[in-house]
Each structure stands twice: as structure tokens, then as C-alpha cells.
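task queued by scheduler; priority normal; single chain, no ligands, no partner chains; default sampling; output format set to C-alpha cells
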Amino acid sequence: MQPESGDSGGAKATSGMAPNLAAALSYVLGIITGVVFLMVEKDPFVRFHAYQSIFLSVAWFAFWIVFTLSRPFSA
């Protein structure tokens, strides 16, 4: 039986932890942990979530800048 998409069949990630735990931890500090797991891991499931963490952090930062600059200045 072939493992399903995103399922490593119980194998450990390159970092020595379960792939689902490594994928979840890639979101903890946003771009920082995303880049760390992207450079350390070879598992495509973990790398996908690391990329997603990076893109989510960049999008959130861009939204924050636009939202902050669009608010009227108060004296």
C-alpha cells in the first residue's frame, strides 16, 4: 500500500521528528522557522508547509503595512 499524500508512512523527518510535527513547528515563528525547516528538511510535506509559512508571513507583513499606512493619523 502506498502512503497517501503528505503521509510519510511513519518515517521521521530529516530533523528526527515526525513530519506532521515538523510541519506544524514551521509556523511557530513565521518566516524564521519557515526558513530553518526549509533548509534542514528534505521531506516534501515539511518543505511545503515551510514554504507556506514563509509566504503567509510575508503576506501578513504586507497586509500589516498597508493597514497601518491607510489609517488616518491622529494628532
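post-processing summary
- The two ends are 66 Å apart (CA to CA).
- The chain has three helices and no strands.
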